Description:
The chain is mainly alpha-helical. Helices cover 46% and strands 8% of the residues.
Amino acid sequence: MPEKNLDYYLHRFANLKIDRSHGRPAPHKAILLLSIIELIERRVIFTNAIELTPEIVSTFLNYWNALYPYQKGIVALPFFHLKSDGFWHLLPNVGYENTFNLLRQIRSNYQIRDMLKHAYLDNELFQLLSSDKNRTLFRRVIINEYFDTEERKRLLQAINLSRAAMKYEHLLIAEASEPYTGKKPKEKTRFKEKVREAGFRHAITSIYNYTCSVCNMRILTLEGASVVDAAHIIPFSVSSNDDIRNGIALCKLHHWSFDEGLISIDENYCVMTTPLLSAQRPTEWLLTELTNKQIMLPQNEALYPAQEALHYHRENKFIK
């Protein structure tokens, strides 16, 4: 048996089992592996127990849509079929062992969720992927082996955008240890708009665990969609400020209501609703019932919404 070292796995990545009987196939397995590498790099995946999470789905679709915007990408396909390459293993849920072992095809992400506890890599491979240098080598092999020149260009743009957004996100987290000023630090001017938006969105939704801070709704579909937005408390058009403490996670309804001034948050982090709303109207009752409700806050107090930002919203946006 060959030694399972870096060269062994680079060779395996360059020779994935792909059905080539119908011409050049879309490289589902290669895109999934790029997604896993990115999520290990971002520390979203930090143990060798890889569940089919919305984070994996959204990362996979980010790459897929950059390459094939007019084709539907289904991450369940490579998540299931990658087991044929020897280094990717699937652990069925209790009661599904026999059914899963007999299964030859997979149809949806939800089928994976119901039947599978998680996937895991060879321990040797997972350890190799903990190194930034090794991740670069694996990315290079995948990109060179499975994509043509134009696809490589689009793929590298997507990878670079994601890595830049991750750096921006880390900058936002680090900034929260400093006193809140409400001003845009000079070092942020070098980040492009797409990078800024992606980094801020991921930072806010992550620290609120993809949950609306007002109604505690948390919906993450296995198609990569989330009900939660990353909202600026003082609008970015006014403040140019992506400080995490100028952000809050809100569902679609409460994001719109917050921006329109129908709701706000007081100095005790409780919901305020405008007196213009009537509890007698069903659609408005959905908001008025939240009056004085304590919002959900991040676990780390340093990341709480800034009182200065909330004060601005109450004075300038909230309809009194």
